Fold this sequence. Notes:
Blueprint: H1 3-10, H2 15-18, H3 23-31, H4 34-37, H5 50-65, E1 74-79, H6 89-94, E2 103-106, E3 110-115, E4 123-125, H7 134-139, H8 152-161, H9 167-181, H10 185-193
Amino acid sequence: MESEQMEAVVDGGFQELVVSEDAARLHAAWLTSDVASAYNESAYYPYTSLKYHVLLTAALLSEYRAGRSFDELFLTVRPGESAAADASAEAALESDVVSPYQTVLWSPLVTLAVTSDPGNRPAARLGAEPARSFADVWSRLSDQPFETGGTRSRMMLDAQLRRLRSWSTALQYIEEFVAWRGMPDADVADVKRGWS
């Protein structure tokens, strides 16, 4: 664990993730939390992410409470936002692409949500039952989530996402890719250009 993440935990970094009466604020806190990203779902599953497990569970619970069944749900894609690089809960709350309880990944590269209403966004059904792998759903998206042509690192990212089965691992992988690779403004503009 990086020292900054350890300091955040020691200084009460989890407090903002559990202490609030405002559900939309809690969602935004989890969506932008570096502290939650530092933990696995379990010691037995070292390449999973507690952060994305919680966000995925919240998205499913929200849809179930609204009367939807699993076979009505989609993974939807929107372009990323440069504001996601700031990774603050306030920025997430102000974003036009973040949907409370539905957005499971918000990054400068791509924004992903689990919803029963895909609208005109690229989307793929999750399937008939909760046994689908991320790779299966990612491969069935109705449009390429981000431009891969001419960018070897993005081609590698897409290839990895087409083989990762765990949802939380795949979402954490995207987060780590963006953090490691960075997303200059020119790249964000190129991603958005493909979606307009």
